[in-house]
Design goal:
- The complex is a heterodimer.
- By secondary structure, chain A is of the alpha/beta class.
- Chain A folds into 2 domains: 211 residues, P-loop containing nucleotide triphosphate hydrolases (Rossmann fold, 3-Layer(aba) Sandwich), CATH 3.40.50; 61 residues, 2-Layer Sandwich (Alpha-Beta Plaits).
- Chain A has 11 helices and 15 strands.
- In chain A, the strands form 3 sheets. A 6-stranded mixed sheet of chain A has the order 7-8-9-4-10-11, sandwiched between helices.
- In chain A, a hairpin with a 3-residue loop joins strand 13 and strand 14.
- In chain A, helix 3 packs across helix 4.
- The longest helix of chain A has 18 residues.
- Helix content of chain B is 75%, strand content 2%.
- Chain B has a two-stranded antiparallel ribbon.
- In chain B, strand 1 and strand 2 form a beta hairpin.
- The longest helix of chain B is centred in the first third of the chain and has 39 residues.
- Chain B is globular, with a radius of gyration of 20 Å.
- In chain B, 45% of the residues are buried.
- The chains are: A alpha/beta, B mainly alpha.
- Chains A and B meet through helix 2 and helix 3 of A and helix 1 and helix 3 of B.
């Protein structure tokens, strides 16, 4: 495990922000850390970077205890926390050069990073005059500058346009698949993480509600059979007379809980034999957003 | 040590385009040039020692009473405000550099700016004295060697400012709002000027009185006409150094324990 926390808890005064969190982030994964605003994501990230002192529990990164090996661990981490921290009076390039010199990195890394995040043309412009998306890209360049083993990104797609979001997503996938990095990325946009994460942790009110492989999540996500038929109301009634209850009836589609391939084929046959026109039938997964809602609602209940 | 040097260099890199840095250079130039202009137009021929005392004294009086403490308040704030404004404390403290190096480099950079400023004051006073002598040959500045005394006085002023620097540095690090450290510093500077100016016997214990005491502590050398003693190692200087070291160390432990927002 690249990140492993055990019983990690943190409170600001009397307010418990993180409750007994046990994270397991495997090497080479894109770990999507999901939760609504105020769920404790940023606090957890600050704990992982030793910006907040661990009050209870333990944090181990690269198999080493964070408290005892702080500098060694931090030297292998690149991070972007909340809004990118950028010196507005310096240009984008100067921001990178300052960091490169602090970390004793060669100057050519600065140009590589500017190229990577496509800020070459705006390199000499004051960072204070950058758009939010450009600032975010510079923040990511700063995080990637030391070529870290582990990248910790807090809401990295905030303020980015759709193209920017796709670029960042592809960059993360590339970092993991080609460069064997591990990415820990927090987000409140579940659909976003769903598109790139290999592992997921869902946090709400400081508690970890789910953790595991994206496939594990899918397996508990109650897949459905989506049937596109000519007249959904009539078809639904016909199916219920035959003991198959539709979970949702929309204008053009019916959603029926998936149990097995055979049952799906039987449903199809039944509809056709009953004289219904079936345009398409396939298995779908509940999207992560609905799943997230159901998990959080379940936790609150 | 590497972390300290890298951080110190970074402080220079970050601040070299800010008013905080340029103030250390511009302030001595403006004040010394104004005094030079005033001296050039108004000074009447007098014994060389008196000429030097008038020139250096005019600058030192402005500096010691109000400007030096205010300048220190500003410098201490400016090195910290770079991080407050950019919200970069979290980044600085998540770099693989010890917190001690980051903290100490920032403090010593502020100290370096104060030193640079005072050194420029000393050099410009000396240079402008000789310049005045050459512009108006009847003013015999070159007939009296003041450099040793002048540098001792500025060294003393520098040492006397360290207590204030440590306090203001810590306040500016903890408070992102300029008005708070500025307000506390301003009130203390006024109190320090009153305490020092009224010869209150415990004024030497109050750091904000130290620059004033440092200047008023210069005395004619006993038994030797035309010579002065800077009295560098007066008790207020020791108090200033002790306050500086203690607050600097206490400040580190506060930073170390404090959560980074």
């Amino acid at each position: 495990m690249v990140i492993k926390t055990e019983g990690l808890s943190f409170h600001f005064g009397t307010q418990q922000v993180v409750k007994s969190l046990s994270l397991n982030v495997p090497e080479g994964s894109i770990y999507g850390f999901l939760g609504p605003n105020g769920a404790g994501k940023t606090t957890t990230i600050k704990l992982l970077l030793n910006l907040l002192k661990t009050q209870e529990g333990s944090i181990s990164i690269f198999g080493e205890d964070l408290q005892r090996n702080r500098i060694n661990i931090l030297s292998q981490i690149g991070s972007l926390i909340e809004q990118p921290a950028i010196y507005a009076h310096l240009s984008g390039k100067e921001n990178l050069q300052n960091r490169a010199s602090l970390l004793q990195l060669p100057r050519k890394r600065v140009d590589e990073m500017l190229h990577l995040v496509q800020l070459e043309e705006a390199a000499d412009k004051k960072a204070g005059k950058y758009s939010l998306g450009m600032k975010q890209r510079l923040g990511i360049a700063l995080a990637l500058l030391p070529d870290p083993r582990l990248l910790i990104l807090d809401e990295p797609t905030n303020g980015l346009d759709p193209n920017g979001i796709i670029e960042i997503r592809e960059l993360m996938i590339k970092l993991v698949s080609e460069h064997k990095k591990t990415v820990f990325v927090s987000s409140h946009m579940l659909s976003e993480v769903e598109k790139m994460a290999t592992h997921v942790g869902i946090i709400n009110h400081g508690e970890l509600l789910f953790q595991g492989d994206v496939k594990d999540l899918e397996s508990i996500s109650q897949p459905m059979i989506q049937v596109e038929v000519a007249n959904t109301d009539v078809a639904a009634q016909f199916l219920s007379q035959n003991g198959i209850i539709a979970a949702d009836i929309k204008k053009d589609i019916l959603l029926i809980p998936y149990t097995s391939q055979a049952a799906m084929a039987a449903t199809n046959r039944l509809l056709i034999e009953g004289g219904h026109t079936v345009y398409s039938i396939h298995k779908i997964h509940k999207d992560l957003e609905k799943l997230f809602l159901s998990i959080t609602q379940k936790a609150q209940a | 040590m590497t972390g300290f040097i890298l951080s110190f260099r970074s402080e220079f890199y970050k601040s070299r385009k800010t008013l905080g840095f340029w103030c250390a250079i511009i302030l001595p130039f403006i004040i010394c040039s104004l005094v030079l202009w005033g001296s050039y137009t108004h000074v009447k021929p007098a014994p060389p020692m008196i000429l030097w005392l008038e020139l250096a004294g005019a600058i030192l009086n402005v500096m010691g009473i109000l400007l030096l403490p205010m300048y220190i308040i500003f410098v201490a704030y400016s090195v910290n405000s770079i991080e407050h404004k950019a919200d970069t404390w979290k980044t600085l403290f998540s770099l693989p550099i010890s917190k001690w190096s980051v903290y100490a480099a920032k403090y010593f950079y502020a100290l370096f700016l104060v030193l640079l400023c005072l050194l420029l004051f000393a050099v410009l006073t000396l240079g402008y004295g000789y310049l005045l002598g050459s512009l108006r040959p009847e003013l015999k500045f070159s007939d009296y060697a003041i450099s040793s005394l002048l540098f001792q006085v500025y060294l003393k002023l520098f040492l006397s400012s360290l207590g204030i620097l440590s306090i203001q540095f810590l306040l500016s690090l903890l408070w992102s709002d300029f008005l708070k450290p500025m307000g506390v510093g301003f009130v203390c500077t006024i109190a320090g000027a009153i305490a020092g100016g009224s010869h209150w016997k415990y004024a030497y214990l109050f750091p904000y009185s130290h620059p004033l005491l440092a200047i008023s502590g210069i005395s004619p050398r006993q038994g030797k006409a035309m010579q002065f003693d800077a009295n560098v190692w007066n008790k207020e200087i020791f108090v200033s150094l002790i306050v500086a070291v203690v607050v600097f160390i206490v400040g580190y432990f506060i930073v170390e324990k404090r959560s980074v927002k």
